[in-house]
Structures
1.
Amino acid sequence: MTTPENKRSDRSRDEVLAGEYVLGVLSLPDRLRVEYRLRDDKAFQVIVARWQENLATFNNDYVTEVPPSWLYGSVETKLFNTSVADQPKGLVWSSLTFWRGLTLVSLSAAIFFAASAGGLFRKPAAVPSAVATLGSGSSSISLVTFFDRQTGRLQVLPVAAGAEKSKSLELWLIEGESAPVPLGVFQDQGDGSIVIPPDMRGRLKDGVTLAVSLEPFGGSPTGKPTGPVVASGKIGI
Amino acid sequence: MAGNDDRDEAEVARLIAQVTLADRKAFATLYQRTSRKLFGVCLRMLQDRADAEEALQEIYIKVWNSAGAYRADMGRPMTWLIAIARNHALDMLRRRRQVAVELDEAGEIADPQVGPEETAVLSSEGRRIEDCMRELEEDRAAAVRSAYVDGMSYLELAGLHGVPLNTMRTWLRRSLIKLRECMDR
């Protein structure tokens, strides 16, 4: 039975456990146990994040040191099995001009799905509906997203929106390095939802990126994003 | 200078966001801007250059793969990156040293009077940790700091300070409670 007393003592234990985890004093099995719990326990994620931020001052003790010059090439080879020079040219999303257009926000994007919700943590599969928050560093716009896998309805509710009038928000799907595919335009007076076309529903899966861009009213005239990306993030279902 | 730090943080956040779009150039820039700090973390914690070089590669692979998981409302981007680096180094350390200090019930710990749910809201305000560290006894504060910065386990800290393992555990847990109380004040 849960009494207020029990609850309080559970919280104390959680505070200490989260602190021990962030300090790093736990053994490997205990670290793994904490990380397992962090996948689903939102309240615990907040406690850990708070310790992380609180103790971040200690990060000043780490003296910067230049890593060997070959190291980045090795990271690239491991990730892409190629070097940056081979990157396809002309891709809207990697074009400098396009990114220079990002004046609206500082674009600190974040997306997370309800049950995974955690900074570094993956979650178990088989959750039917999902919630994502697409945020931005300057907080000029932030969107809360619900996706109902059954109906294919993706609902996006702008919160603290400060976007200019006579503009529309358009949702895009990016698979790997392919060009963005338009998923729909959010209606000005709508409830913030977009029904994903049936043939696109299967493509909303783990690892693909969702992005929302600011477009001329009614959506991009070219079928490609033309305005700044206000938020983006990878799906992790 | 705080202004510069803020601008740097915003720039790092922007780069992380671009990395979620599989932007390799942004990834390269992110590496240029942050790898010296993360390499410093690896060197300090692992105390071995070859291990630190290996760790740094794995860390940036993690950064590429989990950039989409970064949430601005859960902390600053540099803090997030350093947490990835520290967690990776800690896993390596714990594997290397095979320290088996099992988690036990924190029964002997006094109730820290954690405030209502609202205090759990992440806030960048609140008292600086350094002020609160000064309220701890000197050796306890030193233990907290080297646990974090060097990634020392309870066992290693106990050896370093010449106290039994359980004493060290109690030291650190009580210190954590005091720090939490102090920062919530």
Note: Residues 99-126 of chain B have pLDDT under 50 and may be disordered.
2.
Amino acid sequence: MRADRAPWWLGALAGGGLLFLHGPILLIFAYAFSTEDSSFTWPPPGLTLRWFGAAWERPDIWEALGLSLRVALVSTAVALVLGTLCAAAVARTRFFGREVVSLLVILPIALPGIITGIALRSAFNLADIPFSFWTIVLGHATFCVVVVHNNAVARFRRMSGSLIEASMDLGATYGQTLRHVILPNIATALLAGGMLAFALSFDEVIVTTFTAGNQATLPIWMLEELVRPRERPVTNVVAMVVVLVTALPILAAYHLTRGTDTVAGSGK
Amino acid sequence: MTAAAAGAARGGVAGRLSDLLWRRPSVLLALLLGPPLLWLGLVYLGSLGALLVQSFFSIDEFSGVIDRTPTLRTWGELLRPANLDIIARTVLMAALVTGASVVVAFPIAYYAARYARGRWKAAFYLGVMLPLWSSYLVKVYAWKLILAKEGIVGWGFESVGLGWLLEAFLSVPGIGGNSLSVSPTGTFLVFVHVWLPFMILPIQAALERVPGSLVEASADLGASPGRTFRHVLWPLALPGVVAGSIFTFSLTLGDYIIPQIIGTSARFIGLAVYQYQGTAGNVPLAAAFAVVPIAVMGLYLWGAKRMGAFDAM
């Protein structure tokens, strides 16, 4: 059946809504090239590439970027293991308390981030754990599990259980079945989930402020610049780069899971 | 199916282990569930427990030392008028943001679900997905640029000769301020922008399940578009709307960065929690404050479940 045409005003409202979503982000791009260095004057009085060089030479930005990448890598690895295990259990078997497990996985992202943050901080406080790289990872991995879990569960549900049974009937061990049957089937879902978890961790700030002590990840660096601006044009450049860098894993994850019944990311 | 039916048992350590797991699925289940449950139970639930425990501690007002004997004093402090004000302001903001998100999200979701096809469908999907995942701080920062006195909104009003209108709006007490970036209107706009994708996706998911013929039938039977919306579309979209509102409501309740960067100095729950535990060093009161959004969300989720909102997520 051919789809009927939308009334013009509905198209206008939808387009306007999308503009409201994207306009502000695109505006950052224009500001990154502005010659103005102290205020937010619009339109930009002139265009320059000078700030890209200035940002490149700032060691604090490189340090923050490095910490963010390391945290995101380790958290994603932990989340991949825990999320996949949990998804395998929830998707393939029915057991008492299954609903509770699902709820427990979703909770860290359903409750406001500040709750997770302050809860972790008070736990570190009570247990006398000093802030370190690992306290940041502890927080990030906890809320990244749900992203991997959601992607993996969707794939496990579509995968036929008889495949595993056939492999076992033919004499394979669980290790062989995992390597030759299960992993090839869920690989793209895991890759997509992992990329989304990476993007989530790379961008996280609310929980991180509570678990980082005085270490600065890239989002914390940005937050500092927002609260106490030092060099605005450099912040503009960093903001633009962050937008471009986080868009890549999202697009990749979309392509990896396209055409399956649940598309990655819809359950952030 | 049992291992016996699978013929000869597997040899070697790995083989024997596999036989054991095949025969006893509960062992396999325990192995699968153990690590994630241990992590989430220990790290997450343990932390939530620690938070709850701290809310029963109290702080010595003179020395600032935290007294670890259990007391309800901190909870009493939470009920001071100033703190109740903060809670009321936050819940009101969360409700307004949720309402506005529904209004802005509905046309996008409806267009994407009913009229967008093929490439356009993908474009709409990514058009919602990219802002959802793009950096939260960058979005907040972008609004600081937009709403600044010399920013694009002020420039827009000036260049069409309506600068006086913006001035008049900003002088209204309660919603205005020195510039848009230090007004409650600014805070509201940024909240709507940042959480909007969380509203669009579940509404779209709900609308995808409404057959187009239902809307046509309503029109054929003589209903005006307004009546079709009220009696056909809206009731069917409602679970999606409620599911989306869980996100917009919860996220607004707990946010402490947006009101700190764009808005007046009036405090919201998130900001109060942040300041009590940080500068004030009053962790017990911060902990008690943090329980408020959990309680509000608990009530909200209970209501949402009764409306069947979870089927639309």
Note: The longest strand of chain B covers residues 58-59.
3.
Amino acid sequence: MRQRLRRLRHPRGALPYLLLLPALALELLIHLVPMVVGIVMSFKQLTQFFIRDWSAAPWTGLGNYRMAVDFSAPVGQSLLNSFWTTCCFTILSVGLSWLLGTAAAIYMQDAFRGRGILRALFLVPYALPVYAAVITWSFMFQRDTGLINHVLVDQLHLMDEKPFWLIGDNSFTALVVVSVWKSWPFAFLTLMAGLQNIPRELYEASSMDGAGVWQQIRKITLPSLRPVNQVLVLVLFLWTFNDFNTPYVLFGKSAPEAADLISIHIYQSSFVTWNFGVGSAMSVLLLLFLLLVTAVYLFLTSRRRDADA
Amino acid sequence: MPKAPVSPMAPPASFKWSRRVFLLLLSAFVLTPLFVMISSSMKPLQDVQGAFSWIPSSFTLQPYVDIWTTVPLGDYFVNSLIVSVSATALSVVIAIFAAYAVSRYRFRGRKLFTVTVLSTQMFPGILFLLPLFLIFVNIGNSTGIALLGSRGGLILTYLTFSLPFSIWMLVGYFDSIPRDLDEAAAVDGCGPLRTLLKIVVPAAVPGIVAVSVYAFMTAWGEVLFASVMTNQTTRTLAVGLQGYATQNNVYWNQVMAASLVVSIPVVAGFLLLQRYLVAGLTAGAVK
């Protein structure tokens, strides 16, 4: 007993840190140290000759950054193009995913026959491994053997000629469709969890006052979901903006220009030319942009929440 | 979780009809790729090389036999299994310790830890892919520990991917377990670790299950790091599945069969355990 008491008292100060140590060490090793290394790399002329011993690479100051943002040269131009493509893609994908997730969660708030089965079905795209889902979509988007052209051209006769979906400008549409299919169930899942926290009495009281379903959705459901939405939209934004898997599996190693998302752009310009210095500079710029957006977003949404409260 | 209708009044017809139409269209959107995957996986090769057909001209299970020989799918499967199971087990154990510390102790740096760990979640994978690649190359050169191309390197990487979310969700869960239980255990002479193992962990099983499912899914589906950090012998399914599509002839029926086979473990697990995940998310959101 005495021994036990001593053990309890003695390491008390250190114990929480000991418990945190493994998590902390791994986060440092895999995330924070590489991040610092990445920032250092972005100031070095790190070409393929220095991969084996990168500390020997000469410093180049802001050279990599100048190269990345020189929008009159090909490197900067294609980065800018990729950035705008990613912005449009993110806004469309997040907007549509949020809309579908919200509508489905609200429509399925009350019990009806078949709700359980539908809910399980709707979660399948989220549970499916990304590559399995995207590879199936890429089969559907094949020009000659795919389902999309079969339905649009052969069955509905909406077009005379079968378009290409995975090369050229149509690839942007294909990318948005696949991305929405994959990410809306996450919005649905999160909002379903959020709906369960709304006190039932609110609805009961309002229907005593004669409020209809649509009014309840507008006056009770949507405002109650605001804190969940604040986090949800941010998370969806970050995931979608950084999405690598979807374009990588959909288009293979060379994404068409219309669907050249920023992650795949950095990946390609790094591993094709083996110029890790410029790749790192682009990554750092991406991080700064995301930090800025996140900060502004949290500032604006929190202020609105405080004002409402 | 069965739930009585929220409002005592039945919803009006406009609501019911719009619900029917919306859910029908949404189901079609969700189902179409799943249908294509299943039906095409049972088509003979000539069916998937001509114009698309909804129904196979003849049903065959041959693709399910061929997938194992066209590419070494069995090896990829084993690799994915080893990597995902190890990463999940390690990350859940580490997350339990960390979440217990955050939930039960007030210590200096507690807030800093939470913010730092959570914010790594938002950083683009591409940002630490390049440095991590170089760090692994250099560790290999200087110490001889081959992290690049080994399963170990991938396990280490994957377990940190699910760690932030797991910690965050478990803190929410642990917070909802009454502290009186801890104190009662302490009176009985249990040390903090025994209390964690005997009292807190058993009470948090749903949260731990949810976190495990999440960690497993994350590892099973990751493509970016797998494409750079694996070699021929350690290749995982995420990269290996592209083997059917890079040859001159794309065996789409086999691609679909393989996609289905690799999806079954995660989808089945997820659907069986989804109510824990919803409960876990709710606990996190309440906080």
Note: Confidence is low (pLDDT under 50) at residues 1-11 of chain A.
4.
Amino acid sequence: MNFLQPIGNVTFAFLATIGRLVLFTGRSLMHSVRPPFYPRIILKQMIEIGYFSLPVVGLTAIFAGMVLALQSFTGFSRFSAESAIPNVVVLSITRELGPVLAGLMVSGRIAASIAAELGTMRVTEQVDALTTLSTNPFKYLVAPRFIAGVAMMPILVFVADIIGVLGGYVVSVYKLGFNASNYLQNTYDFVEFMDVFSGLVKAAVFGFIITLMGCYHGYHSKGGAQGVGQATTNAVVSASILILCFNYILTEIFFAANG
Amino acid sequence: MAETDFKIRMQGVHKQFGPKVVLDGFNLDIATGESVVVIGGSGVGKSVMLKCLLGILTPESGSITIDDEEIVGISAAGRDRINDKIGMLFQMAALFDSQSVWENVAFGLMARGTPRNQARDIAVAKLALTGLGSEVIDLYPDSLSGGMKKRVGLARAIATDPEIIFFDEPTTGLDPIMGDIINDLIVHCVEETGATTLTITHDMQSARKIADKIAMIYDGKIIWAGPTDEIDQSGNDFVQQFIHGQIDGPIQATAVV
């Protein structure tokens, strides 16, 4: 019966982690909506998450749009459906590639950075110091990052959508010989409010996931430099997996019923 | 005989992590205005005791009172009220990397609603008390030496004129001269503020200089407590072995790993 013991231990450890994560999420949400707020820190985090992520998200989006147009042309030209390329590009970018690629790139940048920063603060007793200075660490460290993540990700993804479509436009017009105004008209005619809106909702959820994973793993890190490194890795890996998982769930919610 | 006015009382405090019992019926009384130093080897529970007092850890059983108010299981608002009375110097100073020296010192003041300009003036005055001039106030912690960090940490601990100050290994990691300077600063600052203090250390020179009373923790309990000038005549083998740093004696190396 000894072989059951490790299975039991792993199950209990998993359930304990889920419980801790749920409690952490609840506390974080509660402190995010109740004063006092720290506007200077929220603004700083917004700049860090939004403004400084723009180059990496923009580059990802433009190349995604370009390659999408190129690959679509290769496939669609086999059955003379090249005219559908603007539609495929805008639909793929706004519904899926924009939010998912931006989410994954920002998770690599921000979840890692948050986990490393909070983890270092934890192991150097800076988090404990906050408590002794009449400052709730959840309000001061976690809530501003939550608010900034949820607020900035939709803006980032909206910009990524525009740049991604622009990437498809550049390849289609300058390489594949599409008419510029026809391409833009097709794109404009085909895209619907729900396509963009669903992507922005996904972005907000991904912003929540990224900051939650960064804060959770950083806040609970222990064991010095190795512990901080482990927390950083766990934050990025778990945020990336959850982004892909929630992307499917949200797609089901938005589009399963009406396509 | 008049009844002693205790600022801090810990009675029967029990704290364990898994099967490891760290505090086992721990008792400690600290009178108002008294400076108590708790000595003991590494891993015997000194920091855990301090974290229980700060509310960072919650004991499984026992009572901890500050100004006769029970703090085990206290509400968040009550904890904030208690923390307003407390200043703390951490072992490695625990300065906030992202903030300048003066912002670190003024952090507790601004958290309590003191305007930024006024908090900066107070921070400068407190830094001066620890021997740091205006040339350091805009520096960031990563450009300070270990001794300077301790001074900034000390200035932060006294910035709000707390009624109680905790010192966690105040001289650890410093050379003997800088350690002695920090000890003098602690004594000076405590005299200035009139605060009740609790220090944990294994540095006997520091303990003798700072303390009115010394208590020794071993195996989760206080095994001896008395006035500083009586420690050499404690008659306790554990205390004698510890203060003379002897290998032979009742304290086994495995017990303090």
Note: Chain B touches chain A at residues 51, 54-56, 76, 80, 83-84, 86-88, 90-92, 94-97, 107-108, 111-112, 156 (CB under 8 Å).
